[in-house]
Amino acid sequence: MNERIRVPNVRLVAADGSQVGIVDTQKALAMAAEQDLDLVEVAAKADPPVCRIMDYGKYKYEQDQRHKEARKKQSLIVVKEMKMRPKIDSHDYETKKGHVVRFLRQGAKVKVTIMFRGREMAHQQLGRRLLDRLADEVQDIAKVDAPPKVDGRNMMMVLSPHKDAVTPRPAAQPAQSKPKPPPAPEEEAEDLESAKPRPPKVTRAEGG
Predict the structure, then answer these.
(1) Do 87 and 28 reside in the same domain of the chain?
(2) How many CB atoms lie within 10 A of CB 116?
């Protein structure tokens, strides 16, 4: 930027974006100084390098603001896991499916894992059938992000929620301080008694 540009000539772009052409670097610096702006190298590998006249401070500020907005829009992807056995009974299946639906409604991805034990590995079609059934039953709110695949003694599938199926979280309400209850009649009476001035203590002289 500015005097740190060492090449003799640059391809100059004016502040309004128009192409000036190849000019002497000192002349380009003088043109930027006349406009109270900076000469900034924007394409160092070009021959000759491309430089633009701009307000570098304003450019950096706007760039930082865009980066901040982009970070705000980035959502943290949460992945929940639900484990099942290939011979799960209908009641447990419905319970676990309810958890899957709740996770999806919250906007999380769900990794469903079928765990095989011993000889169950010979009946992997049961696990595949179970995952296909679950994907079919939640297709209104989710899609299959990663189809079923075997990893060791497990078969896994990843579900991703549809955007319109995610339930928005309610806005947090500010905590309101509860009003202090009025004192009980007995307590009020005690307070009034304690507030009364006590008579001075009189000590009698003994003897004579």
Answers:
(1) no
(2) 19
